[in-house]
Amino acid sequence: MSAVLDKLRKLFQPDENPPPLPSYRPPPVQPSAPIELTRPSNGLDQFFLFLDGQDRLKVLDLCGAPATTEFLFQQDHIPRPDPFYRALELAFGNGPGYLERQLEPDRVDIFVEHTLGHKEGEFDAVLLWDSLQYLRPELLEPVLEQIFAITRPGAPLLAVFHADERIEELPVFSFQVQGRNTLFLAEKDRRRPAQHFNNRMIEKIFKNFASTKFFLARDQLREVLIRR
Amino acid sequence: MWKRRDREEEQPSRSTPDPAKENTPLSTTPAVRSYEPEAPRGVATIGKAVYIKGQIIAREDLIVDGSVDGTIEAQEHRVTIGPNGKVAATIKARHIIIQGQITGNVEGTEKVEIRNGAKLLGDVKTVKFVCEEEGTINGSVSSLRPESKPAPAVEPKAAPAPTTAQQTPNPTDHKK
Q1: Are residues B129 and A69, on separate chains, in Cβ contact within 8 Å?
Q2: Which among A64, A163, A207, B52 is least buried, having the fewest CB atoms inside 10 angstroms?
Q3: Is residue A21 part of a domain?
Q4: Are A78 and B129 an interchain contact pair (Cβ–Cβ within 8 Å)?
């Protein structure tokens, strides 16, 4: 009996010179890689349907990706890339306080005048992309008024809204048109959205425009085609 | 006497030019050769420490790596704005390559290329347009259509096909 007990003790007694345990290192926390994806876009397809049969249409592109400019040029239109996102950074900063600075009326006036200071009815179509998500209501309203003024009646506008309302920081994409219904999205930055838009709110902000049409997608992006 | 004749015969032979020496040029420096009309085209360069204010008309390819304020014309040639180039000018050329900064309108009768790091504040008119991913444009890009060729639809269908060289259409005939 005592022999059995000794064996049991030996089993549970700690070894005098135990082999060193491999030190545990938690895996390094890697920042998530920037999103890059190619996706079909029904909203873009419908947008180009409105441009069919016409050439040399002036298309304002608020993202201004070179690929989009080249594509529109090849389609015999006149792309007008606009550094909207860069202007937003210059006017209101890129840090956490950029939404608070959008409450300052002087900054808002200068931004609208310099960024969208085009002639009335100058554009036949507008690619808004996801730019509106980063504007507080105080800035969103004058921006949409100005976009309304610089587009001709009947012009199509394409906007994109993230559908996920829980997300705190949205990826800011470079939207690159690769075909009539193909988009390449490359994440450039991450930014806190000014507000989350549901369908009712989107219809409300475009109440002065003729119509809005929603396109559902498998990913978290909601495409909206608006007619001026 | 015999010796004098010999000398007289030898003299003309000395005065005749050596054919090998006659063919050798007076100077072999490249500067002299560059005057030949068949020489390959040169490239003029405005260095990064140079500032020019006024009108530049180039009859050869031009590289601008300095500062220019005015206009640049090189209708049949290529204009390259280098990475250090800062140009506040309208540019008209056959082929325009932008690597630096331009404030002004750009017209390329053949092609306009905007390379990475380039910034263009102005409108582009061209036939072929290429913009790299990191190039920036703030202005419209419209096509400069090549000179219109005589449209075949204008030709009357009933007209017989030209059989002689005299029937080839003359553009001046339409004006009469």
Answers
A1: yes
A2: A207
A3: no
A4: no
